[in-house]
């Protein structure tokens, strides 16, 4: 039985939460020592659409809407990601950011707001508190504990968190940088020949899809038949273009939660928030060129070995996996490609402050 191999998941969740709560104070203290430089103001090129000023621009269909989670642990990554989006955008003033923070850490939301406003005084953004404690009860443990923290699951709740006037969103993880105009990614057609396309992302059909689910999943026809009539392929949930209107209409949040509930009763997968997305969407997603998610640069989940780029052009570099470029750079043990992240690092080092 799968459950005999599974660790006691509720104990692990409690561990994760205790870790979150107890590190909050420490993280905030550490954060006080983290100073970020102010990014320059980025201007629209003359051909950009003019967006009606506040407050209606939060909803503009002309804007590129970007959703990201924001927490103190990954703040340095998020700041670099935001900086990279603005720097390569031809209409940077038309990008609206929607940040999701953990509601259980209200004090850090204030800090995050202040940090963002200081480094990006002209940024058009909103902050949405996400009820992380509620989703914590739905999470079963994975092979990498960092994947188990509730904010990782916030991407499943964007349709509820964001105002209903936001129709389409580009979701981005915090461990990536763009080197191309996000408007091109946001313009990904969703459902030209298929009205039902809710989500678009680069697909990887060479990956061994079976490996994402347990033998108990595949040997149970009532479960594995969920893929009947589809050609499911792996996709990475760190970069997605989502039609929020279709998501809401199809109640996909609930569909993903149903698989998470099943996972708590019997172990059907090993990784964190990714497999429920595969269960609901794999084989039915809209195409996005691979250049928009050169993933895996963080290295493998076990040892964090350096990885190379996949062949082909690059519009987005994604340090998914165990290692993060800022941690490796700080430790003076960077992977070769970490040099491509460094120019977007806004952290003000104490040395630079003295200089
Ligand atoms: C951030 O803080 C400012 C100043 O306190 C406040 O006016 C603003 O509404 C906050 N923004 C968000 C998105 O919470
Ligand atoms: C798309 O939706 C419209 C309106 O609901 C419908 O008339 C049309 O046949 C659909 N097209 C396809 C390809 O499903
Ligand atoms: C794919 O993964 C499954 C489960 O881990 C394994 O049994 C199978 O041999 C793999 N197939 C290939 C082609 O590697």
TrEMBL record:
Its main location: membrane. It is a single-pass type II membrane protein. Keywords: Glycoprotein, Glycosyltransferase, Membrane, Signal, Signal-anchor, Transferase, Transmembrane, Transmembrane helix. SUPFAM superfamilies: Nucleotide-diphospho-sugar transferases. Pathway: Glycan metabolism; pectin biosynthesis. It is an enzyme of class 2 (transferase). GO terms for cellular component: Golgi apparatus. InterPro entries: Glyco_trans_8 (IPR002495), Glycosyltrans_8_dom-fam (IPR050748), Nucleotide-diphossugar_trans (IPR029044). Belongs to the glycosyltransferase 8 family. This is Hexosyltransferase. It comes from Phaseolus vulgaris (Kidney bean).
């Amino acid at each position: 039985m799968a459950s005999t191999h599974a660790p006691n998941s509720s104990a692990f969740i409690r561990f994760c939460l205790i870790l979150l709560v107890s590190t909050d104070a420490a993280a905030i203290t550490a954060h006080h020592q983290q100073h970020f430089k102010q990014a320059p103001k980025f201007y629209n090129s003359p051909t950009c659409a003019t967006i009606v000023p506040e407050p209606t621009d939060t909803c503009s269909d002309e804007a590129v809407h970007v959703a990201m989670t924001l927490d103190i642990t990954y703040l340095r990554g998020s700041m670099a990601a935001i900086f990279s989006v603005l720097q390569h955008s031809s209409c940077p003033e038309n990008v609206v950011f929607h940040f999701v923070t953990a509601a259980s850490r209200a004090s850090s939301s204030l800090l995050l707001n202040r940090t963002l406003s200081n480094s990006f005084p002209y940024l058009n953004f909103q902050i949405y508190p996400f009820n992380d404690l509620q989703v914590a009860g739905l999470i079963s443990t994975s092979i990498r504990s960092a994947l188990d923290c509730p904010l990782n699951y916030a991407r499943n709740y964007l349709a509820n968190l964001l105002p209903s006037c936001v129709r389409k969103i580009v979701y981005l993880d915090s461990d990536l940088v763009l080197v191309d105009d996000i408007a091109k990614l946001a313009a990904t057609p969703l459902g030209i020949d298929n009205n039902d396309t809710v989500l678009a992302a680069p697909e990887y059909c060479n990956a061994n899809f079976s490996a994402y689910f347990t033998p108990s999943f595949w040997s149970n026809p009532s479960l594995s038949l969920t893929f009947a009539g589809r050609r499911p392929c792996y996709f990475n949930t760190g970069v997605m273009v989502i039609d929020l209107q279709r998501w809401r209409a199809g109640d996909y949040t609930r569909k993903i939660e149903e698989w998470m509930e099943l996972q708590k009763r019997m172990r059907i997968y090993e990784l964190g928030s990714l497999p429920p997305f595969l269960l609901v969407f794999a084989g039915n997603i809209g195409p996005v060129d691979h250049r928009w998610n050169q993933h895996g640069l963080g290295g493998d989940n076990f040892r964090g070995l350096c990885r190379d780029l996949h062949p082909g052009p690059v519009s987005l570099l994604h340090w998914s996996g165990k290692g993060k470029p800022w941690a490796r750079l700080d430790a003076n043990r960077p992977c070769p490609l970490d040099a491509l992240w460094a120019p977007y690092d806004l952290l003000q080092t104490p040395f630079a402050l003295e200089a």
